[in-house]
Write a structure and sequence with these properties.
Radius of gyration: 26 Å
Distance between the termini: 52 Å
Largest sheet: none
Order of helices and strands: HHHHHHHHHHHH
Strand content: under 5%
Number of helices: 12
Shape: globular
């Protein structure tokens, strides 16, 4: 019975992965098909990629999308990190309220956010432009930065920050020299997530874009109104590979940080064992490392 249950679970998971990734694998395969029709194989070729990179309209849209993604992700990362630092200084009830408000764009439908931003910009500015598109993308990706940075700040040991202040460091200097390096993995993960979401957005860009600025999702939508051209296969394959690479990098960073956290936990165990045995006071940071070296020599 257990073997049958395990077999059924395996079949269920396999079916989910087939439904998710078989269309993507088919698209990647067709991007290397020399034939323009998806119903026949004409041989392995890079002709679709050559046509893609020789199309000035697509290249301009790729440049616009990358520029918009990097700028909006960078602005959202700075604003989101400062917002997380400010949230930690608030009272617990106010802190929870701000967190809830910050998470509303994650739960809200994109079309509602897009229409609301369009109405706001129309009433305040009177027209859509590159600036309205950039502000909209920052609004879209900001919660993802907060979602990645805030837990790192909560886990950070404030005693280290206060120790830096006691040793003569200014609050700003202590933040950049002590706190910022410790939460940097969360900041980088937030930036990658924000860039990915900006790269993928269509609905909000559709409602808030200017007439002279076109992103890649909007261009793909306009090209697929009549017939999907073979160049789209190559373009979608490149987008998939880029996003997959960013996700792998983000996960590897998380794995590396988890290993470091386990290593620090083992060191903490060494500290406590040594201090209890020798009845010496506990010191964090550099002093703790010195005691650890002393303890290892005794061992």
């Amino acid at each position: 019975m257990k073997k049958l249950s395990s077999f059924m679970r395996g079949c269920y998971i396999a079916a989910i992965f087939v439904l998710l990734y078989l269309p993507v694998m088919l698209m990647i395969t067709l991007s290397f098909n020399e034939s323009n029709t998806p119903y026949s194989w004409g041989g392995f070729s890079f002709i679709k990629y050559e046509k893609l990179f020789s199309n000035d309209r697509i290249m301009d849209a790729i440049g616009n999308t990358l520029l918009l993604g990097v700028v909006s992700a960078a602005v959202a990362t700075v604003v989101g990190t400062l917002a997380c630092v400010a949230m930690l200084a608030m009272k617990k009830r106010l802190q929870n309220t701000v967190k809830t408000v910050a998470n509303i764009p994650l739960l809200n439908a994109d079309i509602v956010t897009g229409v609301a931003l369009m109405l706001f910009f129309t009433a305040v500015i009177g027209r859509m432009s590159i600036a309205t598109l950039g502000i909209s993308h920052v609004t879209l990706v900001l919660p993802y930065v907060v979602l990645n940075v805030y837990p790192r700040l909560v886990q950070f040991d404030k005693n280290v920050y206060e120790a830096a202040l006691d040793l003569g460091c200014t609050p700003v200097g202590s933040f950049f020299k002590v706190e910022l390096p410790n939460i940097m993995p969360g900041i980088i993960s937030g930036f990658i997530m924000a860039f990915t979401m900006s790269l993928d957005d269509f609905v909000i860009s559709y409602f808030t874009k200017g007439s002279s600025f076109q992103t890649l999702p909007l261009l793909i939508y306009s090209m697929t109104k009549k017939r999907v051209t073979p160049k789209i296969y190559a373009l979608a394959t490149i987008i998939f590979v880029v996003i997959l690479t960013l996700l792998i990098v983000s996960n590897l960073m998380g794995t590396k940080e988890e290993r470091l956290r386990v290593k620090m936990a083992k060191h903490e165990k060494f500290y406590k064992e040594y201090f209890l045995k020798n009845r010496e006071p506990y010191y964090a940071g550099i002093h703790g490392s010195a005691y650890l070296d002393k303890y290892r020599k005794k061992k």
